[in-house]
Write a structure and sequence with these properties.
Blueprint (H helix, E strand, L loop, with lengths): L1 E3 H7 L14 H5 L39 E9 L5 E9 L12 E7 L5 E7 L5 E4 L3 E5 L2 E6 L2 E8 L2 E9 L10 E3 L7 E19 L2 E17 L3 H4 E11 L2 E10 L7 E9 L2 E6 L3 E10 L6 E12 L2 E17 L9 E2 L2 E15 L2 E15 L3 E2 L8
């Protein structure tokens, strides 16, 4: 069954959801914390024998007519030669969910080894978004993605950029517990996230300004997000990353909710070796390391490095991220930062990573590079930039 975004919007009355405005939280802080339950505590979204395996249905379209619904399919690629690409097909973004006029959108980014970059955010009419509710099969104008584990195909184009890729998963699919965080006891307000392809081999072509580049050595990734709880109303900040270090594949999220939800932290962590997942857990510690720097656009803080630790085999897995450098800094608010206050924003960082993993046959150490992201949903004093403490 396929369904369009326009059909859902025109057949459903608009809801009156409420987003809390950053800074207006004095009364909420004095009240009892709102309900929130994490991936590893909540019941599954669907009945399935293997709780943490991503099904065709997980990677399909989920809109049930809720006017606050958002959903997107994310794919990325990097090569040893320095080429990078990211494509997101959205029925609409994860912000301002009370606005029923938010359009479907494609985000397309291509970076070449010489540092040149093509970065697009392209809106579409609602009737041009069509998606299956049975498996991944999404069309947005001339752009599309489709597939079932372990294979996906992707086509995206805008102006002088055309991307045609095929991904083949080389690590088992993963969903952290139920796959969702819930924000009401009836389990109707939620954000869901699954990773059909934590790591993938990628082949295909990227065309830029008429020059076609063949991709033979690509490393890729695919995840899928949906829900109806806007980040402005529930989150304070989060730290997400994925990395490949030799045979190890890492995926993690450290999510800090706002004061209305008792500043609750919910985590998702996956480490695979080869094709198999070694560990999936909601328990890890994430700490800033070294000096904190201030991003110029948003005013938010980012550190020299991070230390992530989680128990495994009676010892600790250690993930050491160092040499962080700023790749992207976006301001997600009308107000500009000043000398004392940072504003809601998004930071993308590049860095080096070192993993120490206590396996049964002995400790293994692997190194590599990482691209990871930090997002901030509130205006905060700059002297509180270390929000992980």
């Amino acid at each position: 069954m396929e369904i369009t975004r326009r059909a859902l919007l025109t057949s459903t009355a608009c809801g009156a959801g409420l987003l809390l405005v950053p800074g207006l939280r004095g009364l909420a802080q004095a009240q009892e914390a709102k309900f929130v339950i994490g991936n590893y505590e909540a019941p599954g979204l669907y009945d399935q024998a293997a709780q943490e395996v991503v099904t065709d249905r997980d990677d399909a379209y989920h809109n049930d007519g809720n006017p606050r619904h958002y959903e997107w399919w994310y794919f990325d690629l990097f090569t040893a030669s320095g080429r990078k690409a990211a494509v997101i097909l959205m029925d609409r973004p994860l912000i301002m969910l009370d606005n029923p006029d938010l359009p479907p959108m494609m985000m397309l980014n291509v970076e070449l080894p010489d540092g040149s970059n093509r970065d697009f955010q392209v809106p579409f009419p609602g009737e041009e978004f069509i998606a299956s509710k049975e498996h991944c099969d999404v069309k947005l104008g001339k752009n599309w993605c489709k597939g079932r584990y372990p294979n996906w195909q992707l086509h995206a184009e805008h102006e002088d950029v055309v991307v045609d890729l095929e991904l083949v998963a080389t690590v088992d699919s993963w969903r952290a517990g139920s796959g969702a965080m819930y924000f009401d006891e009836a389990l109707t307000v939620f954000n869901a996230h699954v990773v059909p392809a934590p790591r993938a081999a990628v082949n295909g072509t990227i065309q830029v300004a008429g020059e076609e580049i063949e991709i033979k050595d690509g490393h890729g990734y695919h995840d899928h997000n949906w829900g109806n709880a806007g980040i402005e109303g529930v989150l304070k900040a989060w730290h997400w990353g994925r990395a490949e270090c030799g045979d190890f594949t890492l995926n993690f999220s450290y999510i800090l909710h706002n004061a209305d939800y008792g500043n609750k932290v919910l985590c998702k962590f996956m480490l695979a070796m080869g094709r198999e997942i070694l560990l999936s857990t909601g328990e890890f510690e994430d700490s800033f390391v070294g000096e904190i720097h201030v991003a110029p656009q948003s005013g938010n803080g980012w550190p020299d490095g991070f230390l992530i630790e989680t128990p495994y085999n009676g010892e600790m897995i250690r993930i050491e991220i160092s040499g962080n450098h700023l790749l992207s800094d976006a301001l997600n608010a009308e107000a500009k930062p000043d000398e004392e206050t940072a504003q809601p924003g998004y930071i993308r960082l590049g860095g080096d990573i070192r993993m120490t993993v206590p396996l049964e046959g002995g400790v293994e150490v692997a190194t590599g590079s990482i691209i990871h992201e930090m997002s901030f949903s509130e205006a905060i004093p700059k002297d509180q930039a270390n929000w992980l403490l």
